[in-house]
Each structure stands twice: as structure tokens, then as C-alpha cells.
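Sequence, please.
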């Protein structure tokens, strides 16, 4: 099981563009044909509603039928959309159809810029691996967007998250965390 967690993170990072040299809107998430969200509440309406251990049946009952199953490698996920289809969530389930992870689904990176705090390039050097996400946010002076969460087997406190700041010029600062501790700091032009 422990070997599956790094593979799962690799797939999630690939979905969110972590390994591209320049962050590009890539296949599966986001979909540039969808309308843009108009508020942060609209953007996160489904993402924040999905919690560890929820079942696929519960989500389908509340939010309707998801898209047909999609795959990244061997990992299967489903997408649920809000009423306007301006945002949603890609949800990963275990063999018992319980939520194990989620990735924010949106139409394109530019749609996230209005809802993200900005970062100052000169402050990036103050960020360090092994600091808390709270300390990193304080250091940057603005709030990032959470775009992915993978739940650990020990409950919500063992989650792995991806947080992103988007600047007006399209540059991106991404932090990956494990249990609220920064594990990587990546900047894209």
C-alpha cells in the first residue's frame, strides 16, 4: 500500500502539471471548453464538499452522475461538475468506492488567477522545505489555492496537498505538502 501512495502522487502531479517545464493546461484537467467560474465559492463548490471516505454513491446522489470513468495510467477517476459546469472535482476512489483523493477541475489556468493570492519572487527564497504550510503562507503574505488532496490511511491529518499561487503574468508558485509540511517548492514562468 505504501508503494501505491508515491505512484498516486506522481499521477496527481502529472494531472496538475507539476512535471511540465512550463505549466500548461493539459488533458483531463482542466477543460478549456468549459465556462469560467465567477467566484471562489463557485470554483470550490464541489471540491470542498468532497471528503475522505465519502462513497461514490453518496457523491452521485448529491451531485448527479459523474463523467464516465477516466484513467491516468492504472488510476481511475470520475469528474463531478457544479450546476454551471464552470468548475468541479476529479475524484479518486479505492476498491470499496470510497474517496481517497481529489483534484480541482476548472476550465483553464487563467480562470484561477482572480481567486489566487499573488506571490513576490523575492520572497520565494524565504520558503524552505520542512516548514509548515501556515508559515509559508505567512511568509508569502497571501493565500494560495489548494488544487489537489490525497488522503493518507491515517485520516485527514495525513493528507498530501498541492497549493498554488498564480500571478497576473501567468507565473506560478507551487508547494506540495505532506501532513501540512512543505515537501517541494516549484516555480513556473
Amino acid at each position: 500500500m505504501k508503494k501505491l501512495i508515491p505512484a498516486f502522487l506522481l499521477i496527481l502531479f502529472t494531472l496538475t502539471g507539476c512535471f511540465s517545464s512550463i505549466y500548461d493546461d493539459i488533458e483531463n484537467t482542466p477543460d478549456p471548453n468549459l465556462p469560467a467560474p465567477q467566484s471562489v465559492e463557485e470554483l470550490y463548490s464541489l471540491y470542498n464538499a468532497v471528503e475522505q471516505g465519502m462513497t461514490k454513491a453518496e457523491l452521485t446522489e448529491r451531485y448527479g452522475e459523474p463523467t464516465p470513468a477516466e484513467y491516468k495510467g492504472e488510476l481511475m477517476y470520475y469528474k463531478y461538475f457544479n450546476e454551471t459546469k464552470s468548475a468541479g472535482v476529479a475524484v479518486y476512489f479505492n476498491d470499496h468506492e470510497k474517496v481517497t483523493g481529489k483534484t480541482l477541475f476548472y476550465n483553464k489556468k487563467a480562470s484561477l488567477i482572480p481567486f489566487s493570492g499573488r506571490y513576490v519572487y523575492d520572497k520565494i527564497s524565504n520558503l524552505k522545505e520542512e516548514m509548515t504550510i501556515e508559515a509559508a503562507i505567512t511568509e508569502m503574505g497571501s493565500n494560495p489555492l489548494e488544487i489537489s488532496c490525497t488522503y493518507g490511511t491515517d485520516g485527514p491529518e495525513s493528507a498530501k496537498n498541492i497549493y498554488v499561487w498564480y500571478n497576473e503574468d501567468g507565473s506560478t508558485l507551487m508547494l506540495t505538502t505532506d501532513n501540512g509540511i512543505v515537501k517541494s517548492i516549484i516555480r513556473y514562468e
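The chain has a mean pLDDT of 84.
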